[in-house]
Amino acid sequence: MRELLVDFITSLDGYASGDGWPGWWGLQGPEYLAWLQQQPEVTYLMGANTYRLMSGFAAGALPDGTAELGGEEGESVDGLTRAPKVVFSASLEDPLTWPGCTLVRGDAVAAVRAMKQEGDGLLSTLGSLGLSRSLLRAGLVDRLRVVMFPVITGATGAERIYDGYPDVALEMTDSRTFDGRTQLVEYRPRVLDRPPLATGS
């Protein structure tokens, strides 16, 4: 069975991005970038909003206030362009313009459940907070990986990652620090019906 990884890059206070901040909050270091280059090939799963954003970057569109993508950011986008990608959307139309994309219009949870049973290789979400939340709620996520950058974006943070999540027990399977400042933690998640100390009435 294929593994499904939900992979988040966050500020310390749990935001996926921040208004006016560059990619990786401008804090990507050589150890972290080298680790990214060593990651295995995956099939990326995303929703329509992430597709529009990332395919725009690939086509040369830049975030507001950004003159150009940094070298590392450009390499990251190039790598995504080469990778196989599955986009879940009822609003996008075929053919998708970003190379390597397959559009799925049906239920994402059912589609991913079937994908896990077929073929081989790792599946990984890319952004797509709502999709990631739905897959976790359905019990399909095998690994939850969070890379936390050393910044708090209380004033400018956008996209709070864990809003709307169920309670989840996390068994740590890996942790490391990059460049003396950026922390990776990886867990095996288990969705809870109720807090573990709660008793039935």
Overview of the molecule:
The protein contains five helices and ten strands. The chain is of the alpha/beta class and 201 residues long. It has one domain: Dihydrofolate Reductase, subunit A (3-Layer(aba) Sandwich). The strands form two sheets. Strands 5-4-3-6-1-7-10-9 form an eight-stranded mixed sheet. Helix 2 crosses helix 3.
Summarize this structure briefly.
This protein is of the alpha/beta class and 201 residues long. Helix content is 25%, strand content 31%. It has one domain: Dihydrofolate Reductase, subunit A (3-Layer(aba) Sandwich), CATH 3.40.430.10.
Mean pLDDT across every amino acid position: 89
Number of helices: 5
**How many whole angstroms does the radius of gyration measure?**
17 Å
- How many domain regions? 1
Find the count of extended strands (DSSP E, 2+ residues). Answer: 10
How would you write the strand order of the largest sheet? 5-4-3-6-1-7-10-9
Structural class by secondary-structure content: alpha/beta
The third-level CATH topology is Dihydrofolate Reductase, subunit A
The CATH superfamily is Dihydrofolate Reductase, subunit A
Q: Fraction of residues in helices?
A: 10-25%
